[in-house]
Amino acid sequence: KWTGEIDTCARCHRKIVEAVRPTAHGKNIERGADGMTCSTCHTGDVAQHARTSKKEFINNPGNEKPEVAAEGCLKCHTNSRNMMFWRGSSHENAAVACSSCHNVHTPNVKGQLLNKASETDTC
Questions:
Q1: What is the DSSP letter of 123?
Q2: Which stretch of DSSP H or E encloses residue 60?
Q3: How many angstroms separate the CA atoms of 92 and 18, rounded?
Q4: Interior CA angle at 41 toward 97 and 37, to 5°?
Q5: pLDDT tens-digit profile of 80-108?
Q6: Phi, psi (5° rounding) for residue 44?
Q7: pTM for the complete prediction?
């Protein structure tokens, strides 16, 4: 059962919370892996955002500049198989954000966190 911050987020963002639940990110939040919560990625004044519903109190990585958004992802994914070669890659050099290809809230039809049905379609 999800409690604490995720419950607070779900009051307004229920659809997103339910979509993220079966993903790797959702499973890590559910089991409390490395203290992961919504605010791991959505930084800012979470309490003030929850009280006021004002977007300016919370950061949405999808709205950040690619290099800023990538740094947020790299906090956890630096050593993961797919991210360890990010530095100096064609994606980093082209200022492509992780969110340009990945939707971390909603898996595609194959259960992958890609914006489209396949890697080829996404690219």
A1: -
A2: none
A3: 31
A4: 150
A5: 776 666 778 888 888 888 888 888 888 77
A6: 125, -160
A7: 0.79
